[in-house]
Amino acid sequence: xxxxxxxxxxxxxxxxxxxxxxxxxxxxxxxxxxxxxxxxxxxxxxxxxxxxxxxxxxxxxxxxxxxxxxxxxxxxxxxxxxxxxxxxxxxxxxxxxxxxxxxxxxxxxxxxxxxxxxxxxxxxxxxxxxxxxxxxxxxxxxxxxxxxxxxxxxxxxxxxxxxxxxxxxxxxxxxxxxxxxxxxxxxxxxxxxxxxxxxxxxxxxxxxxxxxxxxxxxxxxxxxxxxxxxxxxxxxxxxxxxxxxxxxxxxxxxxxxxxxxxxxxxx
Length: 267
Description:
The protein has about 270 residues and is an all-alpha fold. It has helices at about 5-20, 25, 30-45, 50-55, 55-65, 70-90, 95, 105-115, 120-165, 170-225, 230-240, 245-265.
């Protein structure tokens, strides 16, 4: 679960609710909601494939209930595979491949076991990376597009409300509702853009960066295992993909294991 996303949306909603106070009903205008939400959704259907737009709720669930990749565990797993491959040969990894949960890593190690040429393996894995990045960027761009379109439909609603208001100046009872549409559509468009589409799109962009770094680390590890690199050299290569905080976490997780190994060896 991504606590930051829950906190961020919660704070934004709280700030808005404090501003609205007890007059929430005034902002829940059905016409304004239909113009902004309906118009934005319709525009997304025009701009993007229908199956991508239909996935928007699944993507949202993934944003809020996100499980980050365990960089430390993956490095240790790759180093262990490297040690085994150096000791027993690449074919010895075949039994371990089935136990790997990450599809990208599993695919790469399976190709190593199958004896795929290193250049071909690298090309195939990089193609996989490019396709994954392209797919993720489509969702990110879809949210960025929504952030642009929603305020525009808010302005469309504002123009509709003003036209209706000017057309009913002779009827004072109709001026108020028309002016309400003009203002609440602007509010709805801004709400949808700045609480929903824009921050979610930025979150997806950051997640994509982390995902690509993680997968490129795996690719580097797989190529090193295939090349027969020393496991310690491999470990240092993979540690280069960690930021300062992640590196400290990795070093602290490895140190106890080294200490236990030393004690065991001494006894």
